[in-house]
Amino acid sequence: MQLFFNPNITTETKQITFDKEESRHIIRVLRKKKGDILHITNGFGFLFSVIITIANDKKCLTSVIKHEKKPKNRNYYLHVAIAPTKNNDRFEWFLEKATEIGIDEITPIICDNSERKIVKIDRLNKIVQAAMKQSLQFRLPKLNNPIKLSEFLKQNFTEEIFIAHCEESIERKYLKDIAFKNSTYTILIGPEGDFSTKEITNSLDLKFLPISLGENRLRTETAGLNVVQNISFIHQ
């Protein structure tokens, strides 16, 4: 199934017009014609089936023939707050793979040791959208605007909260050993230089549980994917 994305579709929508870029892709690349069926999600759990009524490569017009609400295929909510990497490609790789495996929310956090403090959120959203479509999912992970870790920590946390860091003087446990199943999680992943001592202390004061991701020192994007996989494994 080829899945398209349009966040503006609702259950009341009757007709959908694709923009020039997608129209060209549908008609010229996929070679779709009048009467063919396409599948679209709005990223909120709905799958819409539409039929092409005008097969124009500049303005493809379709009519909605049915819609259905797809159940979430995971019984947990995962929010990863992660420092953007110096190499932007690596951060985009994390977003893509985390979306494919299963994640609900991502917040880029700016830390004391962050080497990248500016991210192009529009481009990152496109990465997440493409990964959602490729993996045939119907819920778009929420990608928040970048925020300083000190500001992020001011919110009221009611979920399970963890911080992955490399400070050996602090006892850490494996995520799989302390995370409750079927829960809501927020997990902090630091920059290449790790969290500062102050950031770790502040997080622990707020009852974040320190976790270890193994004996090897991981890159930021690998650490992020590690926790996504760990939470997924816990629920298998």
| Average residue pLDDT | 95
Radius of gyration: 20 Å
Q: What class, by secondary structure content?
A: alpha/beta
**Model regions low in confidence, pLDDT < 50 over at least 5 residues:** none
Helical proportion?
25-40%
Instruction: Indicate the proportion of strand residues.
Output: 25-35%
Helix and strand run: EEHEEEEHEHEEHEEHEHEH
* Main β-sheet description: 8 strands, parallel
What is the tally of helical segments?
7
Number of beta strands: 13
Tell me, briefly, the overall form: elongated
N-to-C terminal Cα separation, in Å? Answer: 25 Å
Structure description:
The chain is α/β, with parallel strands linked by helices and 236 residues long. Helices cover 30% and strands 26% of the residues. The chain has helices at residues 20-29, 88-101, 121-134, 149-152, 175-178, 197-205, 220-234, and strands spanning 3-5, 15-17, 37-41, 46-54, 61-69, 77-82, 105-110, 142-143, 147-148, 160-164, 173-174, 184-189, 209-212. The strands form 2 sheets. Strands 6, 7, 8, 9, 10, 11, 12 and 13 form an 8-stranded parallel β-sheet that branches. Strands 1-3-4-5-2 form a 5-stranded mixed β-sheet. A hairpin with a 4-residue loop joins β3 (37-41) and β4 (46-54). α2 runs parallel beside α7 (220-234). The chain is elongated, with a radius of gyration of 20 Å. The mean pLDDT is 95.
